[in-house]
Amino acid sequence: LEKFELNLDGSEIFYLKTSGSTGKPKNIQKRLIEMVLEARHLAKALNLSKDDEFLASVTHQNMFGLTFKFFVPLNLSAKSDERELNYPEIILDENLQNKILISSPTVLNALYQHKNAVKIANLKMIISAGAKLSQDLRVQLNKITNAKIVDIYGSSETGVVGANLGDALKKFAPVNLQIGQKGELIIASPWCEKFISSDSAELNGDEIVLHGRLDRIIKFSENRVNLDAIEEKLNKNNLIKDCKLGLHPKFERILALIVLSEFGENEFRKGGKKAIVGELKEYLKNDFGSVVRYFKIVSKIPYSSGSKVKKDDFLTAYESYEMPEFTQISQNEFRAKISVSDFYFDGHFANFPVVPGFMQFKFVGICAEKLGINLKNISHISSIKFMHFIRPNDEIRLFIEQNGNKISFKIQTEKECCNGKISL
User: Fold this and answer.
1) HSE on the CB side for 210, CA within 13 Å?
2) CA distance 99 to 110
3) Of all helices (H) and strands (E), which one includes residue 98?
4) Per-residue DSSP letter, 325
5) What global pTM score does this model have?
6) Which of 356, 345, 342, 359 shows the shortest CA–CA distance to 277?
7) Interval 224-235 mean pLDDT
8) Does 355 score more than 70 pLDDT?
9) Nearest Cα to Cα of residue 267 among 352, 349, 388
């Protein structure tokens, strides 16, 4: 075979597509020499060597993964696992001794909560990007690992800008920063020509103090509202486990997707969505007035593996109708947990949430279908009786028996809640 040599002079260009977290994705042009210069500086700044081994829960198809999973190891002649280890179970199956883990806050948050999380104790370094690594998550990780934790700040357009190693976010030495007239951060470096970012910030020597994205600052009635600031405030409330804000798809108002904490779920059970929303609106009132009008309780925020929430995914989560998932335990028995995010709690019994009777009958239909019974052919309902409430966080057991064209069913928690008979 004829041999070919790969001759590169650094001027070669390639393109990356952004995540589309603020709308439509766009292509970003990068030069090969920029990636090489960036990788060389990172190797020096983070004290990396050819003996290091890299594992990643992120893809090389975005700037963060491409930089740390490919170019940095390539520059060092170090080993880098080509796989995308994007679940805690996969990561924890690996030999993590003295390895460098490239990850995101989303995966790291799931990782530290895993029952085998102590297996990350001997990692050498954790490099995180995609979103800000919260101080609470850093504290939790520090409890179970001695790894050096590096929170990277940057973007597809700029490459790396700075890092937080635990005390503050500081710029990398070759990076030049300025603050524009609107408070925007202006970035330039050997791997980035001048770029005017959407981040509002202030500078204190090498320290960067971020105030949120300018494109997340929305104007209402002559007042400017920072969605990042509201999210930060909400996440400090003991009712909330996580939240994400955006514009309502139908009204010129702010919509909050919220995941309730364990305490929040207990409060929901006591007072329903009306009590939760009322308390959150009162909590926000002093700092932000009444700008957040709409709240949707969801089971999880739809983060990507890079800890971004795409606009389409945000809207899909808002429009979703969550339902219990039924697991078949035996030939005639099913089990499920009733969640605070189930859709029927959004509009029924606002002060005292219970599962409506029509939904209990729907549960019977779902489980009957799993057994191959088609309840669309109902002749009549011989009897149906409701004895006890089914409420948020209840574990339910549903039983179905068929005898010819006769179907009997019952639903119970600790007590029998519902029973009935159907003729097909």
Assistant:
1) 22
2) 19
3) none
4) P
5) 0.71
6) 345
7) 88
8) yes
9) 352
3-state secondary structure of 358: helix
- Cβ atoms of 257 and 317 within 8 Å: the answer is yes
**Cα(202)–Cα(222) distance, integer angstroms:** 24
Confidence class of residue 145 from pLDDT cuts 50, 70 and 90?
very high
Identity (one letter) of the amino acid at 363?
Answer: F
Q: Is the pLDDT of residue 400 over 50?
A: yes
Q: Which residues contact 155 (CB under 8 A, 6 or more apart)?
A: 63, 161, 197
Asked whether the predicted pLDDT for residue 56 surpasses 90, the reply is yes
**Which residues neighbour 375 within 8 Å (Cβ) at sequence distance 6 or greater?**
364, 365, 368, 369, 407, 422, 424
| Average pLDDT of the segment spanning 134-162 | 94
For residue 345, give the DSSP letter.
G
- b (16+ CB within 10 A) / e for 338-377: bbbbbebbeebbeeebbbbeebbbebbebbbeeeebebee
Distance CA(53)–CA(370), nearest Å, equals 48
